[in-house]
Request: fold
Amino acid sequence: MSNYSDIISFLPYKKPFHFVDELVELSDNQAIGKYRIKENEYYFEGHFPGDPIVPGAILGEIMAQIGLVCLGIYLSKPEERPHVMPAFTSMETDFLSFVKPGDLLTIQSEKIYFRFGKLKCRVSCKKEDGTEVAKGSMSGIIIKQNKLN
Reply:
């Protein structure tokens, strides 16, 4: 495991909607992380029973949590990290292949820009065998939690 557990601890998600198993690398310009699709994910019950496939919306969420939110938290000032709330603003993604139960996904994002609290990244999602399953760009903003109330 990585030493980025502090960044993961600031994620505002809980099971069954927490899609970050490990952060492999974080820098001012990129994030790399992993998530293994569990055999019993809640959405498989209704998404093609008997031949489960991860929905594109969930793949987008996995990509956003690792490639956008984790990077955004990392880029935030350390003293602000416990008080930030990410808000997704846009996504343009091409889905290229199916993802099945048991697949290990590696998400890699590259910062396009981060200014005035808005982060935009190029994000890709690959299976363990190197098959690219999705790629595109995503944007989000960082809001201080007390401004949501």
Observations:
- The domain at 5-147 is CATH 3.10.129.10 (Thiol Ester Dehydrase; Chain A).
